[in-house]
Structure formats: structure tokens, C-alpha cells
TrEMBL record:
GO molecular function: 4 iron, 4 sulfur cluster binding; electron transfer activity; metal ion binding
Protein name according to UniProt: Electron transport complex protein rnfC
4Fe-4S ferredoxin-type domain boundaries: 369-397, 407-436
Source organism superkingdom: Bacteria
Coiled-coil annotated spans: 443-470
One cellular-component annotation, GO: membrane
InterPro entries: 4Fe4S_Fe-S-bd (IPR017896), 4Fe4S_Fe_S_CS (IPR017900), Ion_transpt_RnfC/RsxC (IPR010208), Nuo51_FMN-bd (IPR011538), Nuo51_FMN-bd_sf (IPR037225), RnfC_N (IPR026902), Soluble_ligand-bd (IPR019554)
UniProt-listed PROSITE patterns: 4FE4S_FER_1, 4FE4S_FER_2
NCBIfam families cross-referenced by the UniProt entry: PRK05035.1, rnfC
């Protein structure tokens, strides 16, 4: 009975609150195999394609580079980027990137030579003989980041997990409509994905390994089951289709029943999650010796003649990918990077593909419907019912609109995963996620300003304390100098006092004259005679000088002669 209960619990799944069931729209792109895209003529590689600071440049304009060659150095949490093909570095300058406002970021621009030559590749087929630290460092230096979300450096994430990870979860849910990149990757490269999972498991040594996949991917499920037929250490869990079951906190709860604490991380409860694409990139980095230079991107939407999934080199302009897929834009055509719920509209199409680009959606004019005018909130609470994070979106909306940052923080706006479920169900067509993103950005700016102010205050107080210490030290030195003379002054004063005392002693010493004896004044008389002789000599010298002056002046002599006559 106990074994039966344990087996039941082993395969048990939980359900999170909220969620929605939008049209999936996945059949447009998941039915055709992965294909390669012809190389673009020019590649734009932003230095920052992950969470964290950009790396330090290690190439210069005019350098010849090979595919896989590092363009930046990865130190600490800085993740390096690599050349997607062989060619020449023609510029290092700011360039518009994948951002809602096309913000310019420092990028390396490479003109391809068409050879597509790799660097020498050194694979570690015997990775099990390598130390954990070696594997993590290799994954980091080969530029592997989370390919399913924000792009957190995988090596840093593995290092932070340490020895406390009990459950390794592989996120294969891919719950957002239209996106099928992970689905197609599992169908075409299931064995490589599983090999990457085994490398992650070798590093973390978890107690259990779970793959969470939605039941709307039957072909991918079949391929994984075939690869895992003889494996007993990896468990494949098929979960009901519901958006956003692919969220990190939501999938963790679905598979384990554990909730990530507010303000905490999944590692706090012994869970670490990686994406399917990340596991595949780990396999290529460790076993094949290939840095991440490409990823799977879904090209879909009714404005694309040949939808599907392609291997897109990082740095490839979006326009190049769309044109290769038969892009037929309309007059007011929009292109969304990401899905319809969490993606954003690109302001122009010359931005490059980066590590977190999983989908390019080009809908027709009628596919997503006409944009509706925003109306007033009617307090229907539909958004609260749909929120998978158990928040109160209507309250957060009012706080965000009213600039009430403290109240928004108190109501846990930081826990919002920006899934868009609240905006999807809103009958007033309020773009709630846009309000929440702006509010979180403003709160972050305020916190950053407060941090800078606190640091400036600390620096000012430290400077004032240092100046006060220096002032006190100067006053102490002056007091010491006034009270205690210097050593040489003491010696001079002592010598002067000694001379005075000696003279006083000589002056007060009595002169003793014996009876019948005359005093000996010869020394005094001799000194007096010497002074007289010295005075006479000086007088004679002065007289000679005057006589010589008189002789030397003829006019004076003539005058004296005339007077004499």
C-alpha cells in the first residue's frame, strides 16, 4: 500500500491558480523540420545579450575572425559573445537592438567572408572525468545562457546552485501561443537534448530529474519517450495545456507542489530549472566544443509564406530571416519579437537576433484583430481570477497609474511575471502589462537613485570624518609643540643657562690676596697695551688713507696751493 501511494505521489502533478486558454496557433510552424538559413552579408553582435554586464572587448576593427571566436572576455558574471561566422570586423559601435524602443547598444559588426570557417574545436566526450568546476567554466566561457527567458548566464546559475539542488527541472512546456522552437528542437534533436540534461545532472547531482512538457506536443513527447526508454533517472511529466504553465514558479509548483518564497529563488527550495534549448546548447559546448553561435527561432504568422523553425545565427538581421521565409508585409505591418502575450513590436527590422530571440511573429491585419480603445476599469476582478501569481492586477493598475510606488511595492508588483493573462481577459482593453512594466522600471530607477544617494552620503560622511580626524591631529601637534620645545631648542637653552651660571660663578668668586704679596696684574697690563697698540695702528692706517686720497685729487691740491699763496 505504501509503495502504491509513493508511486502515485511520484507521478502526481499540481495545478496553479489562475491561467488562461488562448488559441494555441502552433500548427502553422511545428509541422516542418528545422532548416538552415543562408548566411547574411553582415552580422551585428551586441556585447550584452544576457542578464549582467557586458564583457570586455578582445577584438579590434579590421581583425579577421572565425566562427566561434570570442569577441569579448567572460570574467565573473560577464558572459562572452562569439563570432557567428568567419569574416572581418568592420566596426565596433552602438547599434539598435531587440528592444521595444530599439535602444542602441555597443555591438561588433562583422562582414562575412562566406567561408564560415570554425575555430579549432576540442570536444569533451569524456566529460564525466572532468571536475564540476571545469565543466561550469567551459559552459560559461562558451557563452551559454538561458534560451527560454531572460538569458541568465547558465554557468553562474549552476555555480549558485551548489550542492543544495535536489530537483533538476527541464522546462519543455513552451506555453505561449505561436512559439514552437522548443517543440521542433525536441522532435529533431531529442537525443542531443537528453545528453545535455545528463551533463547538467552530472554537475548538480540532483536526487531527481523532471522534464515538464504540455500535452499539446505529441510528437515531441513520443521522441523523448523513445530516447528515455532505457533511462530510469529522468522522469517525463506530461502536464495539461494551460497558459502560463511554462513560467518558472508555475512549473515548479506543477511538478513538485513547492512554492518559491516571495522574494526568493527556486534554489531556496532545492530546485533548479533549465530550458530545453539551454540543455541542447550545453551539449554542444561540452561534447562538441562549439560556443553558442546560433539558436532555433520560430518564424510564423499569416504574413509569412513559409512559416517554420530555422537555425538562426546570432547577429542575423531580422529582415534577412523574414525575407528568406517569404515575408509579405502589408501597409501597416507589425513584427513581434516573442509571442503575442509577452513579446513586443519591433520599431524596425534591422535589429539582430540575440540569444533570447525565440520567435518572430508577423501577423496579418486580421489575425490579431483591430486594436481596441482603452476604457475605464469596471472592477470586474477578471484579471485577479486569471493572475497565476495570485496578485491583484486591478489594484496594481491604480497604484501604477497614480504613481503610488510604495503601495505597488507592498502589493508585490515585483512578483508579476508579465505573462499578459490579465490584459487578455480585461473587458476594458486596458494594457495592464504595459502599466506594470513601466511601474517596475520607475521603482527600479527610484531604488537605484536611493542607492546612489546613500553611497554619496556615506562618501561625504567618511570624508567629513577624515577631515575632522586630520584637524584634531593638527591641533594636537600644535599643542604638543607649544608645551614641549623641540630637542635642539632644549639643548641651546641648556647651554645658555650653563654659560650664565658659569659667569655668575666667576663674578661671585672672591679674590684672595696673601699678606705681603702684590697682585699679579701683568696679564691685564699686557692686554691694555695690546689694545692701545691696536688703536694706534688703526689710527695710522686711517691717516695714510686720507693722505693718499689728498694726493690722488689734483684739483684739491691746486686749491690748497692757491690758498697758501
Amino acid at each position: 500500500m505504501l509503495k502504491l501511494f509513493s508511486a502515485f505521489r511520484k507521478n502526481k502533478i499540481w495545478d496553479f491558480n489562475g491561467g488562461i486558454h488562448p488559441p494555441e496557433m502552433k500548427t502553422q510552424s511545428n509541422g516542418t523540420p528545422l532548416r538552415q538559413v543562408p548566411l547574411a552579408q553582415r552580422f551585428v553582435i551586441p556585447l550584452k545579450q544576457h542578464i549582467g554586464a557586458e564583457g570586455e572587448l578582445c577584438v579590434s576593427v579590421g581583425d579577421k575572425v572565425l566562427r566561434g571566436q570570442p569577441l569579448t572576455r567572460g570574467r565573473g558574471k560577464m558572459l562572452p559573445v562569439h563570432a557567428p561566422t568567419s569574416g572581418t570586423v568592420t566596426a565596433i559601435a552602438p547599434h539598435s537592438t531587440a528592444h521595444p524602443s530599439a535602444l542602441a547598444e555597443l555591438s561588433v559588426i562583422i562582414d562575412a567572408d562566406g567561408e564560415d570557417c570554425w575555430i579549432p574545436r576540442d570536444g569533451w566526450a569524456d566529460y564525466r572525468s572532468r571536475r564540476r568546476e571545469e565543466l561550469i567554466e567551459r559552459i560559461h566561457q562558451f557563452g551559454v545562457a538561458g534560451l527560454g527567458g531572460a538569458g541568465f548566464p547558465t554557468g553562474v546559475k549552476l555555480q549558485g546552485g551548489g550542492d543544495k539542488i535536489e530537483t533538476l527541472i527541464i522546462n519543455a512546456a513552451e506555453c505561449e501561443p505561436y512559439i514552437t522552437a522548443d517543440d521542433r528542437l525536441m522532435q529533431d534533436c531529442a537525443a542531443q537534448v537528453v545528453e545535455g540534461i545528463r551533463i547538467l545532472a552530472h554537475i548538480l547531482q540532483p536526487r531527481e530529474i523532471l522534464i515538464g512538457i504540455e500535452d499539446n506536443k505529441p510528437q515531441a513527447i513520443s521522441m523523448l519517450r523513445a530516447v528515455l526508454a532505457d533511462s530510469h533517472d529522468i522522469s517525463l511529466r506530461v502536464i495539461p495545456t494551460k497558459y502560463p504553465s511554462g513560467g518558472a514558479k508555475q512549473l515548479t509548483y506543477i511538478l513538485t507542489g513547492k512554492q518559491v518564497p516571495h522574494g526568493g529563488r527556486s534554489s531556496d527550495i532545492g530546485v533548479l530549472m533549465q530550458n530545453v534549448g539551454t540543455a541542447y546548447a550545453v551539449k554542444r559546448a561540452v561534447i562538441d566544443g562549439e560556443p553558442i553561435t546560433e539558436r532555433v527561432v520560430t518564424l510564423t504568422g499569416e504574413a509569412i509564406a513559409r512559416p517554420g523553425n530555422v537555425w538562426a545565427r546570432l547577429g542575423t538581421p531580422v529582415r534577412h530571416l523574414l525575407n528568406d521565409a517569404g515575408f509579405c508585409p502589408s501597409a501597416d505591418q507589425m513584427v513581434i519579437m516573442g509571442g503575442p502575450l509577452m513579446g513586443f513590436t519591433l520599431p524596425w527590422l534591422d535589429v539582430p537576433v540575440v540569444k533570447i530571440t525565440n520567435c518572430l511573429l508577423a501577423p496579418s491585419a486580421n489575425e490579431l484583430g483591430e486594436p481596441q480603445e482603452e476604457q475605464s476599469c469596471i472592477r470586474c476582478s477578471a484579471c485577479a481570477d486569471a493572475c497565476p501569481a495570485d496578485l491583484l492586477p486591478q489594484q496594481l493598475y491604480w497604484f501604477s497609474k497614480g504613481q503610488q510606488h510604495d503601495k505597488a511595492t507592498t502589493h508585490n508588483i515585483a512578483d508579476c511575471i508579465e505573462c499578459g493573462a490579465c490584459a487578455w481577459v480585461c473587458p476594458s482593453n486596458i494594457p495592464l502589462v504595459q502599466y506594470f512594466r513601466q511601474e517596475k522600471a520607475e521603482i527600479a530607477a527610484i531604488r537605484q537613485e536611493e542607492k546612489r544617494a546613500a553611497e554619496a552620503k556615506a562618501r561625504f560622511e567618511a570624508r567629513q570624518a577624515r577631515l575632522e580626524r586630520e584637524k584634531a591631529a593638527r591641533l594636537e601637534r600644535h599643542k604638543s609643540a607649544a608645551v614641549q620645545p623641540a630637542a635642539k631648542d632644549k639643548d641651546a637653552i641648556a647651554a645658555a643657562l650653563a654659560r650664565v651660571k658659569e659667569k655668575q660663578a666667576q663674578a661671585t668668586q672672591p679674590i684672595v690676596i696673601k699678606a705681603g704679596e702684590r697682585p699679579d696684574n701683568s696679564a691685564i697690563i699686557a692686554a691694555r697695551e695690546a689694545r692701545k697698540a691696536q688703536a694706534r695702528a688703526k689710527q695710522a692706517e686711517l691717516q695714510q688713507t686720507n693722505d693718499a686720497a689728498t694726493v690722488a685729487d689734483p684739483r684739491k691740491t691746486a686749491v690748497e696751493a692757491a690758498i697758501a699763496r
